[in-house]
Amino acid sequence: xxxxxxxxxxxxxxxxxxxxxxxxxxxxxxxxxxxxxxxxxxxxxxxxxxxxxxxxxxxxxxxxxxxxxxxxxxxxxxxxxxxxxxxxxxxxxxxxxxxxxxxxxxxxxxxxxxxxxxxxxxxxxxxxxxxxxxxxxxxxxxxxxxxxxxxxxxxxxxxxxxxxxxxxxxxxxxxxxxxxxxxxxxxxxxxxxxxxxxxxxxxxxxxxxxxxxxxxxxxxxxxxxxxxxxxxxxxxxxxxxxxxxxxxxxxxxxxxxxxxxxxxxxxxxxxxxxxxxxxxxxxxxxxxxxxxxxxxxxxxxxxxxxxxxxxxxxxxxxxxxxxxxxxxxxxxxxxxxxxxxxxxxxxxxxxxxxxxxxxx
Length: 360
Fold this sequence. Notes:
Layout: E1 7-12, E2 15-20, H1 24-29, H2 50-59, H3 62-66, H4 69-83, E3 87-89, H5 96-100, E4 105-108, E5 112-115, H6 120-124, H7 131-134, H8 136-148, E6 154-160, H9 162-171, H10 179-187, H11 189-213, E7 217-222, H12 230-251, E8 256-261, H13 268-275, E9 279-281, H14 288-295, E10 300-305, H15 307-312, H16 314-328, E11 333-337, H17 347-357
Helix pairs in contact: 4-8, 9-10, 9-11, 10-11, 11-12, 12-13, 14-16, 16-17
């Protein structure tokens, strides 16, 4: 049965509203330590679940599903009902921000997202003024999920990081090395900076509205940060993320924020030190001793099982889970994958993962 969450009042903007905090994920982000870490998985709501596939067939397009609050809330809650994870993450997509800014966004079955590639004129024409209106269904989904979610479960909202969203907007699609965005950033850095600046404003607004709708925590996905060199990473990943954190906390002072700069490697230390995040997601290439010794003393670490080992299952998965638990459970830690669940992953493997992490 759903229970009332513990509440405390803090100021948000000009008013004072109740912040609810009793889920284990937000508690560990606030500094608590649990011997058995809280657990959720990136892309835990998705194509590997038969209940998701059945609902997806009824929804129409992918964006129709994202913008239908009843269906999106149902999808968000499906993995909680099946696996009893410690957190639900909003079902949506990082490219709803370009859509809200007035750009054409479509998802082609079997091929992925398609956008009209943006240029200087397109950047100048972005319209931040309609984010609230165009993304209202997402905020309704957040409110609906928080109302249905048990008191000991965390609701995670999210957005894409400006750099990663920009890569899709410039190229019009995903590319292996994000060369179109890297070229624009190198050739026309001021024009590209204006795109990043617009995305910072839009992303912060979007996250603030998610908190106001009922999100307990937010995560910012920088899925393509690993293609950047040191100076570019500082300018296009760290600085925009720091600006988002500052803007969100100006309106939601106690906001708990996780950053996930996939592929950041050794630059994770600077990312943690300079952005102000409460938690950092690490992919499976990050050594556990580096995460423990260089990151965990400053921030909650989240990760980092290789999704291919979850797909593999069996002894290889068990041994990897045990290594991660042994390496990181001594500090603030959230168990997760190093990226999202692959669609072909057997449900039995996820069930086995949950039992092993929880000592069952």
